[in-house]
Amino acid sequence: MRATYLFGAGDVRVVDVPDASIEESTDAVVRVVRACICGSDLHPFHGAEASVDGIPIGHESIGVVEAVGADAHTIAVGDFVVVPFGWSDGTCQFCREGLHTSCEHGGWIGVGGNGGAQAEALRVPQADGTLVVVPGVDESSELLPSLLTLADVFGTGWHAAAQARVQEGDTVAVIGDGAVGLLAVLSAKLLGVERIILMGRHRARTDLGVEFGATDVVAERDAEGIAKVLELVGPAGGVHKVLEAVGHKPGYDQAVGILRPGGVISRVGVPQYEEAGVGFMSLFGKNATLTGGPAPVRAYADRLLPLVLDGTVDPGRVFDRTIGLDDVPAGYRAMDDREALKVLISF
Amino acid sequence: MRATYLFGAGDVRVVDVPDASIEESTDAVVRVVRACICGSDLHPFHGAEASVDGIPIGHESIGVVEAVGADAHTIAVGDFVVVPFGWSDGTCQFCREGLHTSCEHGGWIGVGGNGGAQAEALRVPQADGTLVVVPGVDESSELLPSLLTLADVFGTGWHAAAQARVQEGDTVAVIGDGAVGLLAVLSAKLLGVERIILMGRHRARTDLGVEFGATDVVAERDAEGIAKVLELVGPAGGVHKVLEAVGHKPGYDQAVGILRPGGVISRVGVPQYEEAGVGFMSLFGKNATLTGGPAPVRAYADRLLPLVLDGTVDPGRVFDRTIGLDDVPAGYRAMDDREALKVLISF
Predict the structure, then answer these.
(1) Do B179 and B148 lie in a common domain?
(2) Same domain, yes or no: B37 and B131
(3) How many beta carbons lie within 10 A of that of residue B75, not counting itself?
(4) Does the beta carbon of B279 lie under 8 angstroms from any beta carbon of chain A?
(5) ipTM for the assembly
């Protein structure tokens, strides 16, 4: 089959590899119908070590189940499914608590040599616990782009808002106008927030953010961005909640700078730093709370899928370019050059 | 009057200074009946720059109101009061939300040149919002030590537990066997927690911690301490909540190491570091939440004072030595040498 592999920094190729197949009795094999390129794919795209064999990449997909292992009982061949970016057994203590990304038998699609989703098919471990069956949908559905966002970016934006416990009456700032940031805006809006400040400077993206519910857009960054937000909220002294959807250190410092005493910073952008300010001058002095992490998108599917199916929301609008599998290398470059917000791969 | 001043590292003296007096119309002057030495006083005791004039020190006291300014209306001369370690107006947006330590007109007793509490009297700004009147108590009460803990350490231990949202069913670890750590144990117990692991290695203190509700004591530190706690909790994979009551970096790293995925680290020990691990390998990867800060002990007085008055709890047991004002320098040394857990000053 054809699959996308990363051979080093900037060197992504679509190559022939052995077909995905059942390896464990709890696996399923999914024929990919739609996949996409994630902002977080750009991190290894920038920094991967050169490798002769390459590593599979991609972690967001929807498709049709082609095969199931002997111990997969709730998934059947022919099911149309969303494949969350992490797999999970659905039964361990963490899954039962809704934290599927800490599953005791879990792992990550397209990371560390596991089959990637930017491919014609992929093996999905722990199929029963992982896959989200979407009844009544087939490959011709107009909902495919929005369904695909349930594999990662919609659930991740939702996680930012949910972990921050955003609520009516909060002023919320979202840092980052990528797909996750925009869907964090949408999530905050769904959760009843009226004042949403989107920090981003790509006009086409922030315009979509406004359609999703942002009431203010701040294009400035760093100290200027902080000053602008503080000016916007005036005597409140900062925003109640910050949803950080980038993962770079300046975004963290910006979050600290605009946060109101007693507020919450919820991070879903994978941190590209390990240490940051947490002392009296950053978090402690103002009783700030820092939360977030890899989103258990599987946990949120039950709540978000109906909103997609009934048309309440249209998160698939974050895709602004559609390509075929062979064009994936060009898709990476388009996202890296910020010519495209998020690239959909159609098979 | 006589007051305790710090003149440099290790150089604490009781000196004659002008009497405390009303400076703002919202002030009160409190004649101190009991004060004490705090673990956090040891930080400037270790690190203060040499100074000819010295700076007042001490932030925990109870006493009798001697004078009130023209705009203090709810406090009267003769009232017996607890003086929280921070002052606050009680009316700003943050006070109304219970975050008195971020009061828009607030400040800290005994910090930055403000009159200290290890003195015969002190000026208390924002008297109406700050002082907690204790009806029916006078200088002869046996409850004085426990009432004094409401000025800081009991409210601070409570804050650790409250911010972590500890609840029945949680396994909670408390890092630090100082007064705040022990009262964090007591607070967790009051909030219904059954399994409380106290990390500390001073036997007399941890014994008191066991009386307050600790079910396990771990004397080991760092990697050994982490391994011991993980062994104790077994398949749970860590503790649900960590209450960090020390403020040194190794305590932070220990908290991260013993935390269960999805858990909460609540800090009330004033951090003696600014940067710490918050990335994928520390907080983010396991969706940990970091919270805490200076405790709004004024907010908790309404809930905790009745428990002291009716004898439900006896937090004053953390005091294991009583001295007079002139012996305060020796009291600092006793705490610094860990000969005393917490030193009470009787006037």
Answers:
(1) no
(2) yes
(3) 22
(4) yes
(5) 0.96
